[in-house]
Amino acid sequence: MTIRTLLIANRGEIACRIARTARRLGIRTIAVYSEADADSLHVASCDEAWPIGAAPARDSYLRGDVILDVAKRAGADAIHPGYGFLSENAAFAKACAKAGIIFVGPPASAIEAMGSKSAAKQLIEKARVPLVPGYHGDKQDAAFLERQANRIGYPVLIKDSAGGGGKGMKVVEQPADFAAQLASAKREAAASFGDEQMLIEKYLIRPRHIEIQIFADSHGNCVSLFERDCSVQRRHQKVIEEAPAPGMTEARRREMGDAAVAAAKAISYVGAGTVEFIVDAGGDFFFMEMNTRLQVEHPVTEAITGLDLVEWQLHVAAGEPLPLAQQDLGINGHAFEARLYAEDPSRDFVPQTGRLAALRFPDAGVRIDTGVREGDTVSVHYDPMIAKLIVHGADRAQALDRLSLALEATKIAGLATNIGFLAALARHPAFAAGDVHTGFIGEHEADLLPPARPAEDTHLALAALAFMADRKRQAEDSAARSGDPSSPWNRVDGWRLNDDAHHSLRFRDGEDERVVTLHFRRNGFVLDLPGGSVPAQLLADENGDMIVTLDGVRRTATVIRDGLDYWVLPGAGQPNRRLSLIDPVLEAEAMAEGAGARFTAPMPGKIVQVLITAGAKGAKGAALIVMEAMKMEHTIAAPADGTVAELHYGTGDLVEEGAELLRFEAAKG
Ligand code: ADP
Ligand code: ADP
Ligand code: MG
């Protein structure tokens, strides 16, 4: 059977990426979309697009029944689930098979076998694949698990057997903490996965995460497409991935590949899969879990093998044999992937939502997988990943250099992102040396997250010149409208009756305020900056890309204007900066807004518990609302004794960052 029409049951970059391959192969593509995604790139990337429900994933992208119905009505031969959402949902895979539609993934039995980390380990053990010392049995009473932890030796890791995406894991350093951590892990597990089975593992120190991409067909063939090193992680989530793994020997690669293939064969696997290993300092490797789907970081494997893994998935799903055998496969050069997220590294990486005022990638030297365009919105409903940047080079050094260049040439504005953090990682000497392990980011935090510093004079100068460029344009527009373009009253480019005309601008720079004074001169300005006065000229401004001279030096830079925000991207590896123009009128209005403490959501998230009602009294420190964000719970407590005057949200509501949750009146006295 061949696949002529493919429904893509996903969104974002992965849906766009799957559509790209399908279209190249002449396959008709069907997108599905939630209410939040009607205008999204993945919809525009497909031949047809069908609405499937409201924005929350459980009402749309997780509605297997609705998606299957669309597949039937649209005449789809196959459904590609991407990653996340329904990709590891055995019931959905079964329902597809029952409806006579190909599920582009493994058989439901393989998903089931690997869906529980505990059950997977029991199976894998039989295939003689090494496991991390630990307990992965079915006995679950707390006292028993604690005895297991004592036997294994601390530190131990408590893992939710049904967990995924770095969620549901607790490191326990010492026996005294075990009981409390187990209880907390169980609570989180019940809330997010509805399953409380836990496993205990020895927590390895300075380990590496090395995974093997395998591919199996329905004719009994299974190959390894080699390894990816995904050691650079934050909160057990991958940040930068690469292939091959630094320092990997040919012998060890073969051993790991064989183990991964054995694991796949043990469950009669078919399709693309990833066997994840944790590797200790001595190079010994242990099975962690198997992901029965396409992985976020699959492009690095594509880069070094020259293959298209989605194309292979479609061949295998159509019942064809693997296009190549193990001896035909080889590694060419080195590749990296960096995950660009809407998150604020300076505030513990809280996810950000909002409009991408600018999103411009370099045209060459990098593969960009993204699901958004300039002007699109990163919403609270889905993962805040903006794009993946994938580079390839003849060797690791060249690939890494290309990664740095690509990150530094990317122009993004409108919300905080991790791009500066990624660039710092890519330029870090220890990373360049290949000295990676899962604690890398923690170990080098001081270099990667330098303390906040005030904006540099260059940032302030560029923002001030961008402001003047806008004023000049406005003046020209109004002059054109007034019918007297040459009227001196419509000019702002230096013509003044008084020779020392000047203009002061106030910018908010993080917590601080900075003032730039512009003095108008015949051929430009003199700018008074914190570090002194410099002559400046604005030579061009095209869509935010400016040519200026500062202190006699001609240079280019980008300043994206987004309302009162000036996103200054000086380029040349210099850090980006948001400077917000302080508008005296708006500020006065804000000051005038009444007393009463407002409680705003510190980050986008979901209200999981409301512990008070409007009008209720709360003692200082009393928990009022519990939010879930960044996969953790955050409690908002009363700052003083007082009363909840207004309550704006209920349990289950999604909130944007900055949304007012409630209004609290402190008791007088
Ligand atoms: P990788 O990044 O290696 O592909 P992850 O385990 O990090 O694998 O998951 C990939 C994506 O799938 C993540 O973006 C995450 O949101 C999603 N995901 C994985 N497992 C789950 C799960 N159990 N529940 C919800 N989302 C998941
Ligand atoms: P998930 O389903 O969330 O991807 P994994 O079992 O793959 O869960 O583990 C995620 C990450 O947690 C790993 O990549 C690794 O960094 C860390 N980790 C998992 N097990 C261990 C362990 N036994 N010792 C140290 N780190 C571990
Ligand atoms: Mg994993």
What would your notes on this structure say?
- A hairpin with a 5-residue loop joins β16 and β17 (350-351).
- The N and C termini lie far apart (79 Å).
- Mean pLDDT is 91; it is low at 493-498 and 590-595.
- This protein has 18 helices and 39 strands.
- The longest helix is centred in the last third of the chain and has 26 residues, at 457-482.
- An eight-stranded antiparallel beta sheet has the order 14-13-10-11-12-15-22-20, with helices on both faces.
- It is of the alpha+beta class.
- Helices cover 28% and strands 33% of the residues.
Give the mean pLDDT. 91
Percentage of helical residues? 25-40%
What is the global morphology? globular
Radius of gyration: 28 Å
Q: Which blocks of ≥5 consecutive residues have pLDDT under 50? A: 493-498, 590-595
Please give the largest β-sheet.
Answer: 8 strands, antiparallel
- Structural class call reads alpha+beta
Bound molecules: adenosine-5'-diphosphate, magnesium ion
Distance linking N and C termini? 79 Å
What is the tally of helical segments?
A: 18
Number of strands: 39
Biggest sheet strand order reads 14-13-10-11-12-15-22-20
Percentage of residues in DSSP E strands: 25-35%
Q: Can you give keywords for this protein?
A:
alpha+beta; eight-stranded antiparallel β-sheet; eight-stranded antiparallel beta barrel; 18 helices; 39 strands; globular; binds adenosine-5'-diphosphate; binds magnesium ion
